[in-house]
Amino acid sequence: MIKMNWLNAFIIANLIGIGSNLDNTSVGIAYGIQKIKFPHRINMVINLLGACTALLGAYMGEVISHYTSLNTAQFVSCAVLCGIGSFTLYSAYLHPLIYKRTSKVELHRPGIKQGVLLGIGLSFTNVASGFSATIANSATLWTTVISIAAWGYIMIFLGNIIGIGIVSKLFGKYSSLAAGFLLIGVGVHQIM
């Protein structure tokens, strides 16, 4: 197997961490728009769950990488990341257009129960992102897990700051678009 240099692995791990967690920014923005300061302890709960799911995915990818060729692993990684990116784009833009359903949700300051539910909901992409990063040997298991968990925390925090500020209307509207294309870009990079 060809080992990637540490800088390339670091960049890939961070891009995957950012791409996996841009939806976290939307959560922070949603609370910030309502002038609700997102509690740090709830953010930690959410991203502890995110780290656990990323670890699960990264471990599965690392184990499977021992039984597949590098080209097969890179193709699988590309397919998984492009699939996540495409699903992100579909769920944010096409699904609402097709079904024309909108509803207004009123948010309150999140507690531990809401933190666990948000953590579970935001962690689904972490399994696939962790898997795709390690199966193609783009990054090590722990680099991937730490990157996904750290960026998850940072993105909720930044989203909350942005949401409380004026910039939220512009970034909040396009965060899913950016996340989808970022994950697809990282996926395509895996096979280059």
Q: How would you summarize the topology of this molecule?
A:
Layout: H1 6-33, H2 40-65, H3 70-99, H4 112-135, H5 141-164, H6 168-190
Structural class by SSE content: mainly alpha
DSSP strand count: 0
Instruction: Tell the overall outline.
Output: globular
Strand fraction band?
under 5%
Radius of gyration: 17 Å
Uncertain residue segments: none
Largest sheet: none
Q: What's this, in brief?
A:
The chain is mainly α. The chain has helices at 6-33, 40-65, 70-99, 112-135, 141-164, 168-190. Helix 1 runs antiparallel to helix 4.
Plain-language structure description:
There is one protein chain. Helices cover 81% and strands 0% of the residues. Helix 1 (6-33) runs antiparallel to helix 6, helix 2 (40-65) packs antiparallel against helix 5 and helix 4 (112-135) crosses helix 5 (141-164). It has one domain (6-98, 110-190). The model has no long low-confidence stretch (mean pLDDT 76). The protein has 192 residues and is mainly alpha-helical. The longest helix has 30 residues, at 70-99.
Features:
mainly alpha; single chain; 192 residues
